[in-house]
Every structure is written in C-alpha cells, then in structure tokens.
Amino acid sequence: MTSLTPHLLLALALFAFVNSITPGPNNTMLMASGANFGFRATLPHLSGVAIGFGVMVLAVGLGLGGLFLAFPWLHDVLAVAGGLYMIWLAWKIATSKGMAGGQASGRPQTFWQAAAFQWVNPKAWAMAIGAITAYAPAENYNLNVLLVALVFMAVNGPCVTIWTSFGVGLRRFLDRPAVLKAFNVTMALLLLASLIPLTMEVAG
Could you list the residue ranges that cross the membrane (predicted)? Predict the structure, then answer.
C-alpha cells in the first residue's frame, strides 16, 4: 500500500470522529468554558485544541513518538506531569465563577495554552500514536502522516465545536450562582475521573 486509499481514509475519518466526539479532558474543558464564558470567548481554546492536536499528530508521525520507544521512562514522566496539570485545571474549573453581572470573573484558555495542553494529555498521545500506527502506510510515509494530521484537524474541529456549543446552550440554565457552581464542580470531577485510566496504567 503506497498511500492512503479512499477506504483507509474513510476508516481514519471514523477513527478520528469516535476519538474526538467521545468525552475526554479536552471536551470536558471546552464544555465548561462554553458554559462559563460563551462561544466567542472560547474560540481560541477551541482552535488551540483542533490545530494543536493536528500538529502533535504530525510531530509524532515524523519521529517524536520514537522517543517513547527509545526511552520508555519518558512515558511515565509525561503521565505524571499531565496528571498534575489536569488536577490543577480541575481546581480552576471548580473555582471558576464564570459570568457574574455580565463580567467574566475568570479567563478561558488561550490558543497557545490549549495547544500546549495536548502534549500532556494522555488521551491525545494515545490517539496520535494509534492514528499513525494504523493509518500511515510506510511508502510515501511523510505524505501519509501529513494527510493523517489534516484529516484529524478536519474531523476534530467540528467535534470540539459541538461540545463547546453544548456548554453554551447550558448557559441559560446556569444563571444562578449555586447552579453554576454545581455545574463547574461536576465538570471538575469528570476531568479528574478521566485520570483513572492513567493512574491505573502508571501504577501497573
């Protein structure tokens, strides 16, 4: 197989869709940001996820992922760093006051913060390595890696937009401080719950 065939592209698009639309750290944070800050203010965060992950797939495919094969301990270091960072993010979400009196009491993630988060997001690493391993044929490899990254960006963008929009749609129900607080704490707990597989993997 010399390149991504139409059938392989379709399979890749389905793989990207399933992994992008299912709950995970990015989608949880985007829904919380949409609910707290609105769609427009969350756009940099949203764009950082979609573009940042595509760049990550490209980097992994072009050789960065090989570092984990050469130095397996790097995986554990990344897992611990990512876990600590997500605990901090969960605290930020839980203590966010969102919109109060028309003024945001906190700030959504910037484009660069969201893009950088992909590198400490265990789910993002699993998706990137899985996509390259399964859908980038060896012949014309660099071109295939580029296509995989572009397909992921094309699919991931609408998926994370759906999660952000869902959060925005909840804003009308979160106009009371107590309700908003409960929502943010729930989102923080869901983000922490996403650490359970990571914790089990490191412990094992």
Answer: 44-70, 77-94, 145-166, 178-200
Q: What is the Cα–Cα distance from 24 to 123, expressed in whole angstroms?
A: 7
Concatenating the DSSP letter of every residue in 159-183 gives HHHHHHHHHHHTGGG--SHHHHHHH
Domain segments of the chain: what residues? 6-203
What value, to the nearest 5°, has the Cα angle with vertex 180 and ends 176 and 185? Answer: 150
Upper half-sphere CA count for residue 116 (Cβ side, 13 Å):
8
What are the pLDDT digits (tens) for 127-181? 888 888 888 877 788 888 899 999 999 999 999 999 999 999 988 887 777 887 8
- Token representation of residue 56: 């990550």
> Residue 103 pairs with which residues in a beta bridge?
100
Taken in order 196, 197, 201, 204, the sign of the CA dihedral is positive
Instruction: Please indicate whether residue 81 or residue 17 has the higher confidence score (pLDDT).
Output: 17
In the block, tokens 């660099």 appear at 142
Residue 51 vs residues 25, 55, 60, 117: alpha-carbon distances, Å: 16, 6, 14, 12
